[in-house]
Design brief:
The complex is a heterodimer of chains A (175) and B (322).
Chain A (H helix, E strand, L loop, with lengths): L1 H14 L9 E9 L3 H8 L12 E7 L7 E6 L4 E10 L4 E6 L9 E12 L5 E11 L12 H23 L3
Antiparallel strand pairs in A: 1-7, 2-3, 3-4, 4-5, 5-6, 6-7
Chain B lengths: L5 H13 L8 E6 L4 E6 L4 E7 L7 E3 L5 E6 L4 E6 L4 E7 L4 E6 L5 E6 L4 E6 L5 E6 L4 E6 L5 E6 L4 E6 L4 E7 L4 E6 L5 E6 L4 E6 L4 E7 L4 E6 L6 E5 L4 E6 L4 E7 L4 E7 L2 E6 L4 E6 L4 E7 L4 E6 L3 H4 L2
């Protein structure tokens, strides 16, 4: 049964591979951290080092460092992978943007996304980390199943972002 | 902010009537996908003067050549709504199977052409009734659609086949296929119909195409994900929005090079140009950046409703064929 389900999901992927439906979804997560922006950036500011702070990512294999065009393949805890590439990297304003390549619905029920992560100074020497982006549901056809609709995409990505930011906060704040 | 200001609108209508030349291109219509709203902004005051709620999920907008009607696509809702510009109310709902995305009317206002994202086709509808009046095959996932101001050729950017389909609007026959960069999304055509610009989302550049030969002249590096394009009628320069760097690049067409990169709001998408300014819909930050093209800087940011996507500057020739 599991295999049949997987095959049906895969056929959806191949039909809509690279598809990028017409209705984008907004995701936006923020967290304040009691650590200065430079210290926060030292952890999140390396594009290839996401596995060092995000518990949802088992490991990341990166090439190209922190320059535009750099790539990373992130492996989720269930073994599913996604390839991402760096589109913008601005160390002076503590901000970078990246996008995914081919969708993998086992990783996230999303057909396409572009994300930005930025660190701003917050009150009393702390930081605010904002992670935001634009994505498209897993099935961009007219009648997506519940598991691949807008809500599923928004929820899965928001949870992924929130989990990462909370772990980042735990890692950086003094115990 | 969104409440219609009737007396103000009436005053504007009166001024339109009294000074038709001076009032050209002062109404910017903005489609907010998240709020299912169309706003009318007076570009002289940067104020929202009227708004109308439309069916869910509106995306792109165009206007009729006589400025009396606006057409809004609703990709997920399988329809196009025709809005009466005088009353700013929905006049006709035009059902269309598939995912209608970009729309443009012909010069006479008789037909409406629509790109069908999931149907891989360009559909022609009667602009009054919405009745089906022909179709032509496009490439995969046609998005941006423009029509020559004086000629008969339609150009559709096929996002998933890296090409632009050229269609004769009268016969609805495919004339040619032009190679673009990766994932061309938005298109703009110059007011003299000689130059076509395509914003290529995945390759991060803009294709400059000569319509006389249907050949690409250049691909200009923008970076990130270019999502919107417009060409100034005045000097043929182009403006291309880029979502990841949150910028608009101005392209000097004579030099075929980027002359300025201007920081705008978050996730900028549609760009329209009129009377020396470029207006950029920032989808994520829900505002419009106003760029003075001579100063090459952002001079204002207008807060609008949530998720602005398509825009049209009423009465602007280069804006009509978006």
């Amino acid at each position: 049964m599991k295999r049949i389900a997987l095959i049906s999901v895969m056929s959806i992927v191949s039909t809509f591979c690279w598809a990028h439906g017409p209705t984008p979804i907004k995701v936006d997560q923020k967290i304040t951290i009691a650590a200065d922006p430079a210290a926060v950036w030292a952890v999140v500011g390396q594009f290839g080092a996401i596995a060092n702070w995000h518990p949802g990512i088992k490991y990341a294999a990166a090439t190209g460092g922190d320059t535009v065009g750099a790539e990373r393949i992130i492996t989720f805890q269930n073994g599913a992978t996604l390839k991402e590439s760096l589109d913008e990297f601005d160390a002076s304003s503590l901000k970078y943007s990246y996008r995914m390549f081919d969708p993998n619905l086992e990783a996230l029920p999303v057909s396409s996304y572009s994300m930005t992560l930025s660190v701003h100074p917050a009150g009393s020497g702390g930081s605010e980390v904002e992670w935001y982006g634009r994505l498209y549901r897993g099935d961009t056809g007219n009648d997506p199943p519940d598991a691949l609709n807008d809500d599923a995409a928004r929820t899965a990505m928001s949870n992924f972002m929130r989990t990462g930011l909370q772990a980042l906060k735990s890692k950086l704040e003094p115990k | 902010m969104l409440h219609p200001c009737r007396s103000f609108a009436a005053a504007i209508s009166l001024s339109l009537f009294l000074m038709p030349l001076q009032s050209k291109a002062t109404n910017l219509f903005v489609v907010c996908q998240d709020d299912a709203l169309v706003l009318q902004i007076d570009t002289r005051t940067s104020q929202v003067t009227r708004s109308v709620t439309v069916p869910a999920g509106p995306a792109m907008i165009t206007e009729s050549p006589d400025h009396k009607a606006l057409y809004v696509t609703h990709p997920e809702n399988r329809m196009i709504t025709k809005i009466d510009a005088a009353t700013l109310s929905v006049a006709v709902v035009m059902p269309l199977e598939g995912m209608p995305f970009s729309a443009v009317t012909d010069q006479s206002g008789q037909f409406l052409y629509v790109s069908d994202w999931n149907g891989d086709r360009i559909v022609r509808l009667d602009a009054g009734s919405g009745k089906f009046a022909g179709q032509a095959a496009a490439g995969r996932s046609p998005a941006g659609l423009v029509l020559e101001h004086r000629g008969n050729r339609l150009y559709a950017a096929n996002r998933e086949s890296n090409s632009i389909t050229v269609i004769d609007k009268n016969s609805m026959q495919r004339i040619s296929e032009i190679r673009a960069g990766e994932a061309p999304f938005a298109l703009a055509i110059s007011s003299d119909d000689r130059i076509l610009v395509a914003a290529n989302v995945r390759s991060g550049d803009a294709s400059i195409i000569e319509t006389a030969t249907l050949k690409p002249l250049a691909r200009i590096r923008i970076g990130g994900a270019p999502y919107g394009a417009a060409i100034a009628a005045a000097n043929g320069s182009a403006a291309v929005s880029e979502q990841h760097g949150e910028t608009v690049s101005l392209i000097d067409m004579t030099a075929q090079a980027v002359s300025a990169v201007i920081r705008v709001g978050r996730y900028p998408e549609t760009v329209v140009i009129g009377q020396g300014s470029a207006y950029v819909a920032n989808w994520f930050s829900s505002d419009i950046s106003v760029i003075d093209l001579q100063l090459q800087k952002e001079t204002a940011r207008i807060k609008v409703c949530n998720g602005p996507r398509g825009m049209v500057l009423a009465g602007e020739e280069s804006a009509r064929a978006r």
